[in-house]
Amino acid sequence: MVKVAPSVPEADTMVTWLEDRAQAVLKVRGEALEDVDLIRIMVDGGPFDYRVTLALFRREKALPPQQQPEPFDCDCSTEQMLEGIEAPIGAAAQTLEDFAEQEHRERDEALATAKRRRAEERRRLQVEQRAAAQQAAEQQPTRYRPTRLGRTGIGLLGAGGMATLSGIIMVTRPAKPLPGYQTTVRNWAPPGFALLGVGVTAMVSGTITLVADIVRCRREPKRCNEISTHAHVSVSSNMAGR
Q: Is the full-model pTM beyond 0.85?
Protein backbone atom coordinates (compact mmCIF):
# COMPACT_ATOMS: atom_id res chain seq x y z
CA MET A 1 0.00 0.00 0.00
CA VAL A 2 1.42 3.38 -1.05
CA LYS A 3 0.28 6.72 0.31
CA VAL A 4 1.68 9.97 -1.07
CA ALA A 5 0.85 13.32 0.45
CA PRO A 6 -1.23 15.51 -1.86
CA SER A 7 1.40 18.22 -1.52
CA VAL A 8 3.95 16.03 -3.33
CA PRO A 9 4.24 17.02 -7.00
CA GLU A 10 2.60 14.47 -9.28
CA ALA A 11 1.28 12.54 -6.29
CA ASP A 12 -0.87 10.14 -8.31
CA THR A 13 2.00 9.29 -10.65
CA MET A 14 4.31 8.91 -7.64
CA VAL A 15 1.96 6.21 -6.25
CA THR A 16 2.27 4.22 -9.47
CA TRP A 17 6.05 4.63 -9.54
CA LEU A 18 6.43 3.47 -5.95
CA GLU A 19 4.17 0.46 -6.48
CA ASP A 20 6.17 -0.54 -9.56
CA ARG A 21 9.45 -0.21 -7.63
CA ALA A 22 8.06 -2.30 -4.76
CA GLN A 23 6.89 -5.04 -7.12
CA ALA A 24 10.29 -5.04 -8.83
CA VAL A 25 12.10 -5.43 -5.49
CA LEU A 26 9.88 -8.34 -4.43
CA LYS A 27 10.29 -9.98 -7.82
CA VAL A 28 14.09 -9.80 -7.52
CA ARG A 29 13.87 -11.37 -4.04
CA GLY A 30 11.95 -14.25 -5.58
CA GLU A 31 9.58 -14.47 -2.63
CA ALA A 32 6.23 -12.71 -2.52
CA LEU A 33 4.76 -11.44 0.71
CA GLU A 34 2.08 -13.52 2.35
CA ASP A 35 -1.47 -12.32 1.95
CA VAL A 36 -1.53 -11.26 5.59
CA ASP A 37 1.61 -9.09 5.19
CA LEU A 38 1.57 -5.42 4.26
CA ILE A 39 4.23 -2.74 3.66
CA ARG A 40 2.75 0.74 3.85
CA ILE A 41 4.87 3.40 2.14
CA MET A 42 4.18 7.04 2.98
CA VAL A 43 5.93 9.87 1.16
CA ASP A 44 5.79 13.50 2.18
CA GLY A 45 7.57 16.64 1.08
CA GLY A 46 8.91 17.15 -2.40
CA PRO A 47 12.05 17.05 -4.54
CA PHE A 48 15.20 17.57 -2.45
CA ASP A 49 13.02 17.46 0.67
CA TYR A 50 11.43 14.01 0.74
CA ARG A 51 10.56 12.19 3.93
CA VAL A 52 9.78 8.49 3.50
CA THR A 53 8.18 6.33 6.17
CA LEU A 54 7.66 2.55 5.94
CA ALA A 55 5.19 0.79 8.27
CA LEU A 56 4.97 -3.02 8.52
CA PHE A 57 1.75 -4.91 9.25
CA ARG A 58 0.90 -8.60 9.66
CA ARG A 59 -2.67 -9.80 10.01
CA GLU A 60 -3.78 -6.14 10.02
CA LYS A 61 -1.67 -5.49 13.12
CA ALA A 62 1.43 -3.33 13.17
CA LEU A 63 4.68 -5.06 14.05
CA PRO A 64 6.30 -4.05 17.35
CA PRO A 65 8.05 -0.64 17.25
CA GLN A 66 11.52 -2.21 17.50
CA GLN A 67 10.85 -4.06 14.23
CA GLN A 68 9.57 -1.04 12.32
CA PRO A 69 11.96 0.69 9.87
CA GLU A 70 13.20 4.14 10.78
CA PRO A 71 11.85 7.00 8.64
CA PHE A 72 14.48 8.59 6.46
CA ASP A 73 14.88 11.95 4.78
CA CYS A 74 16.08 12.21 1.22
CA ASP A 75 17.64 15.49 0.04
CA CYS A 76 17.46 14.21 -3.50
CA SER A 77 15.55 14.24 -6.74
CA THR A 78 12.47 12.13 -7.39
CA GLU A 79 14.46 9.58 -9.40
CA GLN A 80 17.08 9.30 -6.69
CA MET A 81 14.36 8.86 -4.08
CA LEU A 82 12.76 6.06 -6.10
CA GLU A 83 16.11 4.32 -6.42
CA GLY A 84 16.97 4.84 -2.77
CA ILE A 85 13.70 3.39 -1.53
CA GLU A 86 14.40 -0.04 -3.05
CA ALA A 87 16.78 -1.09 -0.25
CA PRO A 88 14.38 -0.14 2.59
CA ILE A 89 11.56 -2.02 0.83
CA GLY A 90 13.78 -5.11 0.54
CA ALA A 91 14.77 -4.84 4.21
CA ALA A 92 11.12 -4.41 5.21
CA ALA A 93 10.14 -7.52 3.23
CA GLN A 94 12.93 -9.48 4.97
CA THR A 95 11.70 -8.27 8.37
CA LEU A 96 8.19 -9.47 7.57
CA GLU A 97 9.56 -12.82 6.40
CA ASP A 98 11.60 -13.26 9.58
CA PHE A 99 8.61 -12.29 11.69
CA ALA A 100 6.42 -14.81 9.84
CA GLU A 101 9.03 -17.58 10.32
CA GLN A 102 9.20 -16.81 14.03
CA GLU A 103 5.41 -16.88 14.20
CA HIS A 104 5.28 -20.26 12.42
CA ARG A 105 8.04 -21.61 14.66
CA GLU A 106 6.25 -20.49 17.82
CA ARG A 107 3.02 -22.01 16.53
CA ASP A 108 4.75 -25.33 15.77
CA GLU A 109 6.38 -25.32 19.21
CA ALA A 110 3.03 -24.59 20.85
CA LEU A 111 1.43 -27.46 18.94
CA ALA A 112 4.30 -29.80 19.85
CA THR A 113 4.05 -28.76 23.51
CA ALA A 114 0.29 -29.32 23.52
CA LYS A 115 0.75 -32.72 21.85
CA ARG A 116 3.44 -33.68 24.36
CA ARG A 117 1.24 -32.62 27.27
CA ARG A 118 -1.67 -34.65 25.90
CA ALA A 119 0.60 -37.69 25.58
CA GLU A 120 1.89 -37.19 29.14
CA GLU A 121 -1.69 -36.83 30.38
CA ARG A 122 -2.68 -40.08 28.63
CA ARG A 123 0.31 -41.89 30.15
CA ARG A 124 -0.54 -40.49 33.60
CA LEU A 125 -4.14 -41.64 33.27
CA GLN A 126 -3.00 -45.10 32.13
CA VAL A 127 -0.65 -45.37 35.12
CA GLU A 128 -3.41 -44.28 37.48
CA GLN A 129 -5.86 -46.74 35.91
CA ARG A 130 -3.37 -49.62 36.22
CA ALA A 131 -2.63 -48.66 39.83
CA ALA A 132 -6.35 -48.46 40.63
CA ALA A 133 -6.98 -51.83 38.97
CA GLN A 134 -4.08 -53.39 40.86
CA GLN A 135 -5.30 -51.91 44.14
CA ALA A 136 -8.82 -53.18 43.48
CA ALA A 137 -7.45 -56.63 42.67
CA GLU A 138 -5.40 -56.66 45.87
CA GLN A 139 -8.42 -55.63 47.93
CA GLN A 140 -10.54 -58.47 46.55
CA PRO A 141 -10.47 -61.65 48.63
CA THR A 142 -8.01 -64.11 47.14
CA ARG A 143 -9.09 -67.67 46.41
CA TYR A 144 -7.57 -70.17 48.79
CA ARG A 145 -5.07 -72.50 47.15
CA PRO A 146 -3.71 -75.13 49.53
CA THR A 147 0.03 -75.57 49.80
CA ARG A 148 1.77 -78.84 50.60
CA LEU A 149 0.85 -78.35 54.24
CA GLY A 150 -2.80 -77.81 53.33
CA ARG A 151 -2.88 -80.83 51.04
CA THR A 152 -1.42 -82.91 53.87
CA GLY A 153 -4.21 -81.70 56.14
CA ILE A 154 -6.81 -82.59 53.52
CA GLY A 155 -5.29 -86.03 53.17
CA LEU A 156 -5.35 -86.56 56.94
CA LEU A 157 -8.99 -85.46 57.07
CA GLY A 158 -9.93 -87.92 54.33
CA ALA A 159 -8.02 -90.82 55.87
CA GLY A 160 -9.27 -89.98 59.36
CA GLY A 161 -12.84 -89.80 58.11
CA MET A 162 -12.57 -93.20 56.50
CA ALA A 163 -10.94 -94.66 59.62
CA THR A 164 -13.57 -93.10 61.88
CA LEU A 165 -16.41 -94.42 59.74
CA SER A 166 -14.84 -97.89 59.72
CA GLY A 167 -14.37 -97.77 63.52
CA ILE A 168 -18.00 -96.78 64.04
CA ILE A 169 -19.14 -99.63 61.86
CA MET A 170 -16.95 -102.09 63.76
CA VAL A 171 -18.01 -100.81 67.21
CA THR A 172 -21.70 -101.00 66.40
CA ARG A 173 -21.41 -104.44 64.86
CA PRO A 174 -22.84 -107.06 67.30
CA ALA A 175 -20.67 -109.99 68.43
CA LYS A 176 -21.39 -113.23 66.62
CA PRO A 177 -20.22 -116.78 67.35
CA LEU A 178 -17.77 -118.15 64.87
CA PRO A 179 -19.12 -120.95 62.73
CA GLY A 180 -18.21 -124.39 64.11
CA TYR A 181 -17.39 -123.10 67.62
CA GLN A 182 -19.63 -123.34 70.68
CA THR A 183 -18.11 -120.64 72.92
CA THR A 184 -15.87 -118.47 70.75
CA VAL A 185 -17.42 -115.28 69.41
CA ARG A 186 -16.01 -112.58 67.13
CA ASN A 187 -16.17 -109.16 68.83
CA TRP A 188 -15.32 -106.20 66.56
CA ALA A 189 -15.60 -103.60 69.31
CA PRO A 190 -11.96 -103.50 70.54
CA PRO A 191 -10.36 -103.04 67.10
CA GLY A 192 -13.23 -100.72 66.21
CA PHE A 193 -12.47 -98.43 69.15
CA ALA A 194 -8.79 -98.46 68.23
CA LEU A 195 -9.55 -97.60 64.63
CA LEU A 196 -12.02 -94.95 65.78
CA GLY A 197 -9.34 -93.36 67.94
CA VAL A 198 -6.88 -93.35 65.05
CA GLY A 199 -9.48 -91.83 62.74
CA VAL A 200 -10.48 -89.08 65.17
CA THR A 201 -6.84 -88.28 65.83
CA ALA A 202 -6.15 -88.08 62.08
CA MET A 203 -9.17 -85.85 61.50
CA VAL A 204 -8.15 -83.50 64.32
CA SER A 205 -4.59 -83.36 63.01
CA GLY A 206 -5.84 -82.75 59.47
CA THR A 207 -8.19 -79.99 60.63
CA ILE A 208 -5.42 -78.27 62.59
CA THR A 209 -3.03 -78.56 59.63
CA LEU A 210 -5.58 -77.24 57.15
CA VAL A 211 -6.58 -74.33 59.38
CA ALA A 212 -2.92 -73.44 59.88
CA ASP A 213 -2.39 -73.43 56.11
CA ILE A 214 -5.48 -71.26 55.53
CA VAL A 215 -4.36 -68.72 58.16
CA ARG A 216 -0.85 -68.59 56.71
CA CYS A 217 -2.21 -68.09 53.19
CA ARG A 218 -4.42 -65.23 54.32
CA ARG A 219 -1.47 -63.54 55.98
CA GLU A 220 0.86 -64.17 53.04
CA PRO A 221 -1.33 -64.61 49.93
CA LYS A 222 1.58 -64.14 47.54
CA ARG A 223 3.46 -67.04 49.09
CA CYS A 224 0.56 -69.44 48.55
CA ASN A 225 -0.02 -68.18 44.99
CA GLU A 226 3.66 -68.54 44.15
CA ILE A 227 3.74 -72.08 45.55
CA SER A 228 0.60 -73.01 43.66
CA THR A 229 1.91 -71.48 40.44
CA HIS A 230 5.25 -73.25 40.86
CA ALA A 231 3.49 -76.54 41.39
CA HIS A 232 1.36 -75.97 38.30
CA VAL A 233 4.43 -75.20 36.22
CA SER A 234 6.24 -78.28 37.56
CA VAL A 235 3.30 -80.55 36.72
CA SER A 236 2.98 -79.02 33.25
CA SER A 237 6.70 -79.53 32.63
CA ASN A 238 6.53 -83.19 33.72
CA MET A 239 3.55 -83.80 31.46
CA ALA A 240 5.36 -82.15 28.56
CA GLY A 241 8.43 -84.31 29.20
CA ARG A 242 6.31 -87.43 28.97
A: no
